[in-house]
Design the sequence.
């Protein structure tokens, strides 16, 4: 099992003039540290207008900085919002390819649709159409990576003429492609499109097993027709993590950040009423956290084995090691740790990452190479069959030209 880190740039009020600047600098320092410690991935979502919950509206810019301050960790854009109202499809292809070149081929390309009315309404994207728009855009962007020139498309939502979309990514045929998955139906869609499955909800090992089984059944089925030009058969899940030798200290330092992450997601996606410029999410959280079951007692009593999905891997190295073994046995390919949540302090995050890397990570690293080899052997025939079902890159009309200005 591999280990990633999720950075959404949470920033509870009150803010000062320097708050955002300090936050971004601290996140870069933490990711530099994670690179040195041997973490496998860093993932940054694309969110817009979600005050306090996420100030990561331009992850491609932030990850460009990450690419120049790290040398090994893989760089996950998770997720790029694919409906064209958010991002013109060719611009997505250009940005991902540029980031792949800058990082020497370390990009993982996550795709998604967005779910909050704040974001969908802010960009004029209709909820009922976003899945179909995502599907058209994913197909087009995959072809933009490999076709030279891109042969064009005339879809219901994504239309583009013949153009040579540049630059091309360093990884061939393109960076590994993923899909954001929030339920079992999405898992099945990711599998049948040969996309890695990214889950940003918290669940325990028993639920992990169900998701993993459903996903790999889809990969091995005759329904799998890759959206890209390679199959990325991986499933990753977000898990809160904070590591300290003393369990009580681990809980004390992590609980508000973890629960604020959950509260903020629920607020913007469902039960909250946002008032742009006047939303006070941290205050709402402090007043109303008990009602949705986010009081401090929900983390469970000290000394008990970890198993509560809301708490995840928050505890001592031994507790975390035992908990993650269960996810590993369930078949999870990557645990993406939520470490930057709420007001969790920078120095505490760094200390937690170091302790985890020293005390927990090594045994999982030792087993990962063997697990990857066995999985590749098992899935090889299914992947080959899926790729045989995939339409090859298209060829543009060799006589196509762009009319000169005087002819247009």
Sequence:
């Amino acid at each position: 099992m591999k280990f990633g880190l999720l950075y959404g740039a949470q920033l509870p009020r009150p803010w000062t003039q320097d708050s955002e600047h300090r936050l971004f600098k601290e996140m870069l320092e933490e990711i530099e540290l994670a690179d040195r410690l041997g973490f496998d991935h860093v993932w940054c979502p694309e969110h817009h207008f979600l005050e306090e919950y996420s100030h990561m509206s331009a992850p491609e810019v932030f990850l460009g900085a990450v690419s120049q301050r790290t040398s090994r960790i893989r760089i996950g854009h998770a997720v790029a919002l694919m409906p064209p109202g958010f991002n013109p499809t060719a611009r997505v292809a250009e940005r991902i390819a540029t980031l792949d070149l800058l990082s020497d081929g370390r990009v993982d390309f996550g795709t998604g649709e967005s779910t909050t009315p704040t974001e969908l309404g802010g960009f004029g994207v209709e909820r009922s159409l976003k899945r179909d728009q995502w599907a058209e855009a994913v197909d087009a962007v995959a072809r933009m990576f490999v076709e030279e020139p891109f042969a064009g498309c005339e879809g219901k939502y994504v239309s583009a003429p013949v153009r040579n979309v540049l630059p091309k990514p360093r990884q061939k045929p393109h960076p590994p492609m993923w899909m954001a998955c929030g339920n079992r139906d999405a898992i099945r869609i990711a599998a049948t499109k040969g996309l890695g499955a990214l889950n940003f909800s918290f669940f325990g090992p028993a639920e992990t097993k169900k998701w993993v089984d459903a996903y790999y059944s889809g990969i091995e089925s005759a329904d799998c027709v890759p959206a890209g030009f390679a199959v990325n058969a991986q499933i990753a899940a977000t898990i809160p993590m904070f590591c300290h030798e003393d369990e009580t200290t681990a809980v004390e330092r992590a609980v508000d950040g973890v629960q604020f992450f959950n509260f903020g997601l629920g607020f913007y996606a469902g039960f909250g009423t946002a008032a742009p410029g006047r939303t006070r999410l941290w205050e709402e959280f402090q007043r109303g956290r008990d009602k949705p079951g986010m009081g401090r007692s929900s983390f469970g009593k000290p000394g008990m084995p970890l198993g509560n999905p809301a708490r995840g891997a928050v505890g001592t190295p031994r507790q975390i090691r035992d908990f993650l073994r269960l996810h590993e046995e369930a078949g999870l390919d990557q645990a993406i740790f939520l470490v930057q949540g709420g007001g969790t302090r920078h120095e505490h995050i760094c200390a937690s990452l170091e302790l985890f890397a020293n005390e927990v990570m090594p045994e999982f690293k030792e087993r990962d190479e063997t697990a990857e080899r066995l999985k590749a052997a098992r899935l090889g025939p299914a992947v080959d069959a899926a790729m045989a079902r995939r339409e090859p890159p298209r060829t543009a009309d060799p006589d196509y030209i762009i009319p000169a200005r005087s002819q247009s």
User: Anything to note?
Assistant: The mean pLDDT is 95. The two ends are 56 Å apart (CA to CA).
